[in-house]
């Protein structure tokens, strides 16, 4: 559609250009026609002057011939009269042609004057129309500028609104993702805790099984150890008691011996 419109506008512009060229050629042709007509009138005027001079000369000759009363003069008068008639006919013809040429020139001048006035009126009307069109174009340009400004402001507001909406959506999505991440983290933590508890329970159970498996041989060894220790302790206790009895007997004997000798007995260090 735009291409067709552009082509149409180009066609109109081309025709206007051709019309301007034709007008220029027409004006040039009119000027040339008037010049040619003026030249024709000038040439015919000269011919008419020459013809009038010839008529005047022939009449002078006729008058001179008529003054003479001889037979030869009569013949000359007849010849001069014929020459006058011929010159007068030629002069009349030239006069008629000159009158026609002058009429044609007047008509051409009138037509050119009318055409010039028409061209001036057309030029004036076209200038006024161009002025109106320029004013309309300026008005249209201002309207288009205002519309473009309004559209730009509307687009800007829309973009701002869309940006705010996008930011809000992004914020909402981020919050949702944060909550989801938090929930996933809590879930993962609970799962890990559960897995750890399960692993701990499994380890405890395994340890208990191992402990239970090793408890029986250890009990036997412990009982043997306890029995051996008891025997050793009993043996040591008996040995100590025997040594204490021996020490007490030695002390008593020494005391008795000292009493007999009349001096105190030496204290024997105890084991």
UniProtKB/TrEMBL annotation:
It comes from Marinimicrobium koreense. Residues 52-74, 182-271 are annotated as: Disordered. This is Histone H1/5. The keyword Coiled coil applies. It comes from the Bacteria. Residues 5-32 form a coiled coil. Residues 56-70, 182-264 have a biased composition (Basic residues). Keywords: Coiled coil.
């Amino acid at each position: 559609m735009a291409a067709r419109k552009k082509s149409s506008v180009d066609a109109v512009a081309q025709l206007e250009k051709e019309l301007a060229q034709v007008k220029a050629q027409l004006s040039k042709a009119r000027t040339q026609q008037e010049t040619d007509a003026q030249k024709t009138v000038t040439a015919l005027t000269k011919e008419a002057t020459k013809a009038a001079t010839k008529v005047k000369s022939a009449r002078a000759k006729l008058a001179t011939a008529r003054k003479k009363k001889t037979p030869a003069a009569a013949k000359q008068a007849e010849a001069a009269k014929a020459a006058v008639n011929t010159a007068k006919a030629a002069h009349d013809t030239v006069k008629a042609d000159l009158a026609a040429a002058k009429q044609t020139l007047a008509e051409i001048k009138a037509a050119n004057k009318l055409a010039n006035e028409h061209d001036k009126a057309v030029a004036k009307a076209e200038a006024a129309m161009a002025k109106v069109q320029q004013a309309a174009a300026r008005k249209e340009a201002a309207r288009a500028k205002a519309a473009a400004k309004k559209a730009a402001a509307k687009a800007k507001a829309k973009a701002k609104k869309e940006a705010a909406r996008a930011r809000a959506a992004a914020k909402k999505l981020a919050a949702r993702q944060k909550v989801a991440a938090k929930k996933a983290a809590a879930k993962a933590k609970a799962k890990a805790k559960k897995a750890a508890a399960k692993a701990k329970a499994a380890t405890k159970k395994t340890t208990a099984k191992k402990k239970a498996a090793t408890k029986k041989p250890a009990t036997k060894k412990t009982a043997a150890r306890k029995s051996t220790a008891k025997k050793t302790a009993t043996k040591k206790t008996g040995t100590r008691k025997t040594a204490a009895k021996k020490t007490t007997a030695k002390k008593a004997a020494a005391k008795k011996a000292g009493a007999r000798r009349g001096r105190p007995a030496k204290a024997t260090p105890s084991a």
